[in-house]
Specification:
Layout (H helix, E strand, L loop, with lengths): L1 E2 L18 H35 L1 H7 L2 E5 L4 E5 L5 E6 L5 E6 L1 H8 L1 H15 L9 H5 L11
Antiparallel strand pairs: 1-4, 2-3, 3-4, 4-5
Length: 152
């Protein structure tokens, strides 16, 4: 099944590329391996944090869910279910769409933690009847960027 819309990372074309020494190739391979390890650690960390957030706010999720985090009511793509789990649209080999249960780790990997929290915040604000947070307001609170006149 194909989940989400994570863009496929394509390797750079090697046609006509300059030859590199075995030592340089080894350094590249080591750096690539380290990047892969860091990716796994980042996903594990983000999965733990999101799982903790969902546990800490279980009562709210029970009351407000299901929350559509991506897509529309007619065609949901990502849903936070009442039990704190996720369902995501997928397409099988024949092109048939369905909503399938996915793990928190899969959601974090495909959607990214910051995007997920933004979507959860927006869905909960909507469920509470609050206006959406203005763009940049989250980072404005950190003093990094955004609209310093934004009220939340």
């Amino acid at each position: 099944m194909i989940f989400g819309r994570k863009p496929k990372v394509e390797a750079a074309a090697t046609d006509g590329a300059a030859e590199i020494s075995p030592e340089v190739a080894r350094r590249f391979a080591d750096a690539a391996e380290a990047a892969g390890s860091e990716r796994v650690i980042a996903i594990e960390h983000a999965t733990e944090r999101l799982s903790r957030y969902l546990r800490d706010h279980r009562n709210v999720v029970l009351t407000a869910a299901p929350l559509i985090l991506a897509g529309t009511h007619e065609a949901p793509e990502l849903v936070l279910e009442q039990d704190g789990g996720f369902t995501m649209s997928s397409i099988d080999a024949e092109g048939t769409a369905s909503m399938d249960r996915v793990s928190v780790a899969e959601v974090v990997e495909l959607w990214g933690a910051a995007d997920l929290y933004d979507r959860i915040e927006a869905a909960l604000r909507s469920a509470a009847g609050l206006a959406p947070r203005p763009t940049g307001a989250i980072v404005a609170g950190l003093g990094v960027a955004g609209d310093d006149r934004a009220s939340v």
